[in-house]
Amino acid sequence: MRFLLTIILLFSLNTDLYSQNNISERILSFNKNKYSLVDFFEQITKQTNIEFSYTSDLEHERIVKLPALKGSIKYFLDKIINKQAFNISYTNDKVFIVGIPMQNREFTISGFVYDADTGESLINASIYETQNYDGTLSNNYGFYSLKLKSRLIKLRVSYVAYNESYHSLNLKKDTIINLYLKTNTKLSEILVKAKKHKPFSSDFINTKANNALSSMLTNSKELDLFSAVMKMPGVQAGNEAFGGFVVRNGAHDQNLILLDDVPIYYSNHFYSYFSIFNSVAIKHVKLIKGGFPARYGGRVSSVLDVRMQDGDMKKLKGEIYISLLTAKININGPLKKNKTTFNLSLRRSYVDLFLSSLVNIIDEDFDFSLYFGDLNFKLVHRFSPRNKIYLNTYFGGDVIKSQETYDGIYNFRSKTKWGNYVNSLRWNHVYKKNVFVNTSLIFSKYTYLLDDKRQYENYYTQSFFKSGIKDYTIKTDVDWIPNNKTYIKSGLSLSLRNYKPSNLKYSNSEDTSLNISRIQNIFSRELVLWSEYQLQIRRNVKINIGARLTSFIVDKENYFFIEPRLKIIYNLNEKCKFTASYSQMTQFIHLLRMGSMKSPTDIWMPVSKNVKPIQAYHYSLSLDYYLSKGIAVSLAYYHKHSKNILEMKSTSVFNDNWQENISVGNSLSKGLEINISKIKGNTRGNIACTFSKSVYKFADINNNNNFDSPYDRPYLVSMYVKHWLNKKINFSLSWVYGAGLPFSLAYKKTNLISPHNQTISELAVVGEKLNTFRLSDYHRLDICVNFVKKKKRGQRTWSLSIVNVYDKRNISYIGFGSYYDMIKDNSYSMRKLCLYPFTPNISYSYKF
Amino acid sequence: MYKIIFIIISLLFISCEDEINFPFQQENKVQLNALLGNDSLFNFHLTNPNNESIKMSLFANDKTYPITNISRDFYGIRDFYIKKNNKYEITLEFDNNIVKAETKIPSKVYIDSVSIDNDRNIKYFTFNFYDKPEERNYYMVLITSLSNASISFTSNDQVFKGNLDKDYYQQEENAYYGSCVFTDDTFNGQLAIINIDKPLFTNNKFKLNLYHISESYYKYERAYVSSRNIADVPSFSEKNIYSNIKGIEGIFASYSLDYILVGLN
Questions:
Q1: Suppose A677 and one of A212, A342, A431, A692 were both cysteines; which one would form an S-S bond, judging by CB atoms 3.0 to 4.6 Å apart?
Q2: How far apart are CA A813 and CA A239, in angstroms?
Q3: Which residues pair with A842 in a beta bridge?
Q4: Crossing angle for the helix pair A37-48 and A73-80, nearest 10 degrees?
């Protein structure tokens, strides 16, 4: 409550700053809309007895056109008098209009930052003036706005993996200037001149770790996005092959994954071997683990904001990539030069081609195939320097098919499909030199389908299961940059969601009484209003304060939450920065897992009357220190408390009464993260260490005692290094070492009882406490060597890579042959399965 | 070079599956299993692995019935009858611990009638009973021979949610498969009509047992059935067997039983 009052106070304080004396609010009315300026002043004096005092520079004889016939004095003067050239001050009965000396006048430079070769807009590019170090960063669409005093100025523009550029101009009026940067082709030099420049970020998230992530993705296109993300401190894979990534011990579903502003509900292919993001089409990635700005919400652990490339403005470009598992192609270019671009990426795995043949050789009655594919399309049209429109489409999924036949009598076929379909239409508009508006229409859909038919002669059964979520969103975000020390962002969004948790159709040809047709539809509405207020309090102190107001309506239940956010950055000196943050996050949808493995049959469900939203309270402290030669060190401590997280009580299987079978509890995670990154020179890389602890507590699980969360990994070290031997050969090495994850085992013989027969108890093997076992330590080394050669029309790359070089058999999951076989005298045996053994791969890519 | 190629190929074809062994870590905890049935004698099973001196007493109708000092595993039957709607509390004292649990005997629910349908290919029968509207009720159905031997049966009735459906198991992984308990959610306060398939391996006559069970036993049964079913599913999340006796293991629950003899032609 105290926090909320502080926010309200700050906002009202701000209102006071902009408010004027009473006389400025006096209402005037006119009977015509054109006057000479001096007549206009006289009219005001007649109506109010207020006198005007002004300088001769004002050109008082000129004719002015009134914007309206009625309004306050302030309203008219603000519209008529050029405030960049004149100061207006109000006393009790007088208005003074005084000229501002030319050297003190402020003008706004605004525009977009683009790649000079491709015309691609650049996100988070740094723009600053070299004398006073006033600066800013471009926003998610490359837009920037900077207010500077009138004089001859020199602007410096820089961006990761681009050559910095300088622009000199004599600033005498508001100027729109688009800035262009050339890609850095040299290996020796990129980015980061810390020096005195501390740009006032539109983003407030520009951490060293994110620079390292961007650098990693820019320099290593062979890296899958999620692999790169998992090299960051505080991020882990959960268990290998269990899908997605885990940030600061939060479950997979607690990560907000955005593809060009659109939330993605399922983000993996091939049971997590690949993310759905086609790395050749990625423009920018931002990972936020704490200190969440108010613009992000709906999940409680992290935000992964992925932006795809717009497409080359000048010429047709592309890339073809073929490996043992997948093939992908990207084509992008202008449809209309400097106006309209497109970017099309396609990918498909073809392991099914030989897997199907192999299965068929083993058993000719059995067919099996498994594949995935996706399409990514983006169309950008610039109507004018102030207006841009974006159309995005993503369509992708995985398919598993199997068919079995015996002598033409018995026939069984099964098809399982899951995937995303995503569409968005966005309109960027620069209203004024310092107001940027983005309006989006968004549609996102995730579907899981299972179609199963079994036929025996004329008798058959057929079942069709469908689960999914549809998300329709309309939203508007506004960036307002009143001056170089204030950046205000606000937004409003409305989302309508349709959940289909478990639709089932079952038909039985012999007994129609067994037929089932079950359709479940749940609808929710979410209205969000958010605002962020970024202030530079002192030269070395910046603050981002914001709040997010959400109303979530489902089944006549209305949840209303206010989520305060605060982040303070203190620059101790040119090299050292402290950050402290507090975020309160709320999540209105739950992912019900069918097991400890994140499978596509995971079901998204909204909160309900009985199942409350997850709420997380996140505190973090961090220290960033820039050493030299592009080496930066970061230390961060976090403390995260979540409540209303769900666990299934005694089973992992979804059914109609799922709310009965779940237990609601709390989690507590805390940890220390250390990150060392190097983003300059021939050898670049990142070393991340995380020490953490995460526990769960549920009233009716584990006898209300704390137990280790399924993502509790007390220590984790990950390392990624890339070295360029020369322009033609480079290699990368990735190594990860971490404690094994906890898991539960039925490890105890016990007596069971039934009312049917109470004198003979049964013997069973059951678990007593949860997550008391741990898998063995996890470690893995991957290497990749790239041979690059410039060709006449492009560049080709041969890549040789090995996953799990020393073949460490990390446990992907544990299973049993059969329940009774596993029990021995004093122990029981299980099967452990490793999904990522030693795996060599070769790939060829050609970029043109 | 050949050696390297050989190693690579060998690694590729080595199975990704290995066997690992985990020892049983039998914790020596006291366990009490007691199911109190209406009009039955009180019986219980106490596991006492450390041979501690355990003082056990049952409290009912404002009266305490000391059971005995037990210093070993013990199956006990005490010669007093459990009455419906009574509340019972059990207390165990051992090694400076006092452990308590309580249960209320559910009221007896009578099977109203049984009807047999012989016209169909798949023979089944229907029985009905009246559910009490005031509270959420839990039931269990068991079929036994006349000599009380357990007989397996199937049912596609919606109250079992596919748990006893012979086809259901193949369609979808079902952790509760085989569970004979159900709630009154679909017929609360009304006449419940339940379909049961003709039991397997029976002659003409068998016993249909309807148990009105306490919530604790419902949870206990669901937990151990799912524990069995998902034990060999690699992706399952292991959960505890439900217990309502804090501090030790086991269950202190209750039921009321009604049964009827059924004859199928």
A1: A212
A2: 8
A3: A800
A4: 170
In whole angstroms, give the CA distance from residue B125 to residue B114. 7
What does the alpha-carbon distance between residue A427 and residue A433 come to, in Å, rounded to a whole number? Answer: 17
Pairing, β A435-456 against β A459-483: antiparallel
Chain A hits for B221, Cβ within 8 Å: 754
CA-nearest of B137, B217, B124 to B164 is B124
Extract the tokens encoding A567.
């982040």
Q: What span, in angstroms and rounded, lies between the C-alpha atoms of A842 and A801? A: 6
Chain B residues in contact with A757 by the CB 8 A cut-off are 148, 150
Among A461, A463, A751, beta carbon nearest to B33: A751
CA dist., res. A644 & res. A665, Å (int)? 5
- Of chain A, the percentage scoring pLDDT greater than 70 comes to 85
With CA atoms as reference, report the closest residue to A359 among A416, A404, A327, A406: A404
Tokens 């995303």, residue located: A420
Which residues in chain B have their CB less than 8 angstroms from residue A354's CB?
A: none
- How many residue pairs bridge chain A and chain B with CB atoms within 8 Å of each other? 216
Residue B196 and residue A558: Cα distance in Å, rounded? 42
d(CA A630, CA A614) in angstroms, rounded, equals 40
The number of angstroms, rounded, from the C-alpha of A472 to the middle of its chain's C-alpha atoms is 18
DSSP string, A545-571: EEEEEEEEEETTEEEEEEEEEEEEEEE
Is there a contact between A752 and B224 if contact means CB atoms under 8 Å apart? yes
What is the distance between the alpha carbons of residues B160 and B176, in angstroms, rounded to a whole number? 9
The greatest distance separating any two alpha carbons of chain A, rounded to the nearest whole angstrom, comes to: 111
Residue A831: closest CA among B100, B30, B18: B18
Q: Which amino acid is at B198?
A: K
- Which run of H or E residues covers position B190? none
Which of B117, B155, B240, B244 has the most A C-beta neighbours within 10 Å, making it the best mutation to test the interface with A? B240
pLDDT tens-digit series, residues B239-260: 567 888 887 888 899 999 999 9
Query: Residue A274 and residue A270: Cα distance in Å, rounded?
Result: 6
Q: Identify the pLDDT of residue A194.
A: 38
With contacts defined as CB-CB under 8 Å, which chain B residues touch A744?
237-239
Helix (H, G, I), strand (E, B) or coil at A222: coil
Q: Which residue has the tokens 């998992």?
A: A230
Please report the DSSP string for A496-544 in residue order: EEEEEEEEEEEEESS-GGG-EEE---EEEEEEEEEEEEEEEEETTEEEE
DSSP secondary structure string for all residues of A743-781: E----EEEEEEETTEEEEEEEEEEB-SSS-EEPPPEEEE
pLDDT at A197: 44
Ranges A572-576, A648-652, B19-23: which has the least confidence: A648-652
When mean pLDDT is compared over A115-119, A489-493, A844-848, B129-133, the highest value belongs to: A489-493
CB A650 within 8 A of CB B221: no
pLDDT score of B144 more than 80: yes
Shortest distance, CA A140 to any CA of chain B (angstroms): 40
Query: Angle at the Cα of A412 (from A410 to A414), degrees rounded to 5?
Result: 175
- Which residues from B are below 8 Å from A702, CB to CB? 240
> In which residue are the tokens 């037990």 written?
B70
Which residue is it, tokens 């599913």?
B233
Residues 580-599 of A with CB under 8 A from B: 593-597, 599
Judge whether A178 and A147 are in contact, CB under 8 Å: no
What single-letter DSSP state applies at residue A681? S
What is the signed CA dihedral for B248, B250, B253, B257, rounded to 10 degrees? -160
A706 exposure class (CB count in 10 Å sphere: 0-12, 13-18, 19+): middle
Cα A594 → chain centroid: 25
User: Is A763 part of the contact surface with chain B (CB cutoff 8 Å)?
Assistant: no
